[in-house]
Amino acid sequence: SNRVGRRALDVTVDCTGASGSHDVAVKFTGVTTADGALALNATSDAEGVAYKIYDTNDKQLAINATPTEFVNVTAAAPQTLQHSVWYTKTGVADDVVAGKAYANAQMDIVYK
Predict the structure, then answer these.
(1) Is the Cβ–Cβ distance between 84 and 38 less than 8 Å?
(2) For residue 80, which phi and psi values (nearest 5 degrees)?
């Protein structure tokens, strides 16, 4: 795939005080490109790129899609949901313009 610049995007979920156990995941929401990447916002100078988020199995988590990888969290055992975020092209290489690339996403904790 056409991606570069891996960065860790880990989310620790701590349910101290909760009873029982909970299967949880992170859902990312925001403005997307056609292939589910997180689109750059208007303050960006860069063009032709977006951000894609992947889970620990290297499967893309499309923005606004229901997550598929859950971890079990108990009151005594916080868990970290590990993700990676990458730059990706949105078109052909000739369309890419270097610059600052800003994007906004919301992270929602999803319970199963």
Answers:
(1) no
(2) -110, 125
pLDDT in tens, 83-104: 999 999 987 667 889 999 999 9
Residue the block writes with tokens 């979920």 = 13
Q: Could you tell me if residue 28 is left (phi over 0), alpha (psi between -120 and 50 degrees) or otherwise beta?
A: beta
Looking up tokens 């606004």, which residue turns up? Answer: 64
Per-residue pLDDT, 10: 92
Distance (Å) of CA 74 to CA 1, 21, 22, 110 = 36, 4, 6, 15
Reading the block at residue 74, the tokens are 């108990």
Specify whether the CB–CB gap between 51 and 58 falls below 8 A.
no
| CA-atom Rg of the chain in angstroms | 16
HEC string for 36-87: CCECCCCCCCCECEEEEEECCCCCECCCCCCCCCCEEEECCECEEECCEEEE
This model's pTM is above 0.85: yes
